[in-house]
């Protein structure tokens, strides 16, 4: 059978590994369970099997693939693929060069290539449409199936770079599947985040091994995966993600929700911020818990209206941070991420990028230096944790905020004299292939909040960190019908108004600190956003 290449469905691509079969199953039975329940493409990848047995296995699997009308791809062994007339082969960077593979297989077979970086895309684009039909983009996350991984995992941001290269080099024919460490707990996040910067394409499919091959019930496992891939909404927090322009009325409603739900705000934060953050949280009618105990994160995340503030100013062990991200993502509770001093040192850059790869955040907030660096609009390293003193224009800051929101499919906040907030959640939409239907960072909703210059806000330590506490409290306090963007904007607007009020009441930075908590307390409990002094402007 010859498959028309444009008809190949890459959405759920099963790669075999007979070393992980559970007792009572065979390679054949696991593949059949997959095919019956929605696997759309099969690759035989048996690294340690002798040629004779490989061919026997391949012939067996080929029969069943034919029955389900699904193409069969052979990993690496071009000879085996030719011998059994398989539908295609998949080769890695170190395997036989692609032009030779094509010469041997002829034009009609499917050829897949493992790609990890943009320069490899440039190569395949130069070869043109007759060489590589699809690429396996990875390794996305750490995985046990690669025995000697040569590359460190690229994460969604690495996959975005590959998708961008496909667009840049105009390799429109080339399809993509994500590969490496994909499981039900990260598939939707990967589909949602891995979108080219021009919004025109996302991954065409998900490729995986162990979730089907090692499953005691491969039918149920495949049904679950299929359902996950077909779901077009990624509800990573249990509140509304729909686009809206916040108003005094909607912010008033957010505050009422926070008042009655009294969220539990777990702070994993720096030592300087601990006490201030706990008091700010209490001023907002919420309950702080400053905890870095790994064994309790799952329990905390399951408490109604739990919310996590993850601030990397000084850090807990990385395993604890990942466990916390996992625990909150697992139960769709919001995480507010503050990458303090993001670009100050290689250590911070590496740690923050590692965490950004690991989870889905409801909000990413930073000062102007952090957001500009995250957006790759500025390469100047920060001096410590404070924003640089250079003046940036509003348009540049808004753009950086939108880029961060788009990249991480989150609500991004950039602080300074003017605060910017952009919504990159796309209502939680996640789609294979079509990305954001061409919507780019510039098209994202973005607002600006200002209240004149309040330099004293930058003269106390951890004022940005405590805005993080305020956001975490507001997003945690939402009802399921509450709106995430309203909550983040409401928090920033309240904080700016409180800052101004406190600056008129204080005598210096020492009393400003105290006055800021008083002002937050007063404004929150009065709940009259229509009277707040900070202004909210639509920037886009
Ligand atoms: N010149 C200013 N005028 C008005 N508001 C300001 C000014 N500078 C900072 N702010 C406000 O102060 C808060 C902290 O912002 P900043 O950009 O200083 O954060 P940060 O560097 O992360 O703070 P930290 O790391 O000390 O916690 C924000 O709410 C911001 O809006
Ligand atoms: C001063 C300082 N150092 C690490 S975190 C922090 C608080 C302000 O970001
Ligand atoms: Mg900060």
From TrEMBL:
One Gene Ontology cellular component annotation held by this UniProt entry: cytoplasm
Catalytically driven reaction(s): 4-methyl-5-(2-phosphooxyethyl)-thiazole + 4-amino-2-methyl-5-(diphosphooxymethyl)pyrimidine + H(+) = thiamine phosphate + diphosphate; 2-[(2R,5Z)-2-carboxy-4-methylthiazol-5(2H)-ylidene]ethyl phosphate + 4-amino-2-methyl-5-(diphosphooxymethyl)pyrimidine + 2 H(+) = thiamine phosphate + CO2 + diphosphate; 2-(2-carboxy-4-methylthiazol-5-yl)ethyl phosphate + 4-amino-2-methyl-5-(diphosphooxymethyl)pyrimidine + 2 H(+) = thiamine phosphate + CO2 + diphosphate; 5-(2-hydroxyethyl)-4-methylthiazole + ATP = 4-methyl-5-(2-phosphooxyethyl)-thiazole + ADP + H(+)
Name the CDD domains on file.
THZ_kinase, TMP_TenI
The record's listing under Gene3D superfamilies reads: 3.40.1190.20, Aldolase class I (3.20.20.70)
The Thiamine phosphate synthase/TenI domain extends over: 12-212
Q: Which cofactor does it need?
A: Mg(2+)
> Per UniProt, what is the name of the gene that codes for the protein in this document?
THI6_2
Q: What job does the chain carry out?
A: Condenses 4-methyl-5-(beta-hydroxyethyl)thiazole monophosphate (THZ-P) and 2-methyl-4-amino-5-hydroxymethyl pyrimidine pyrophosphate (HMP-PP) to form thiamine monophosphate (TMP).
Q: Which family does it belong to?
A: In the C-terminal section; belongs to the Thz kinase family.
Organism phylogeny: Eukaryota, Fungi, Dikarya, Ascomycota, Saccharomycotina
Q: Name one GO molecular function term.
A: ATP binding
- Protein name listed in UniProt: Thiamine biosynthetic bifunctional enzyme
Q: From what superkingdom does this record's organism come? A: Eukaryota
Q: Which Pfam families match?
A: HK (PF02110), TMP-TENI (PF02581)
Q: Which keywords has UniProt assigned to this entry?
A: ATP-binding, Kinase, Magnesium, Metal-binding, Nucleotide-binding, Thiamine biosynthesis, Transferase
Species of the source: Saccharomyces pastorianus (Lager yeast)
Which GO annotations describe the biological process of this protein? thiamine biosynthetic process; thiamine diphosphate biosynthetic process
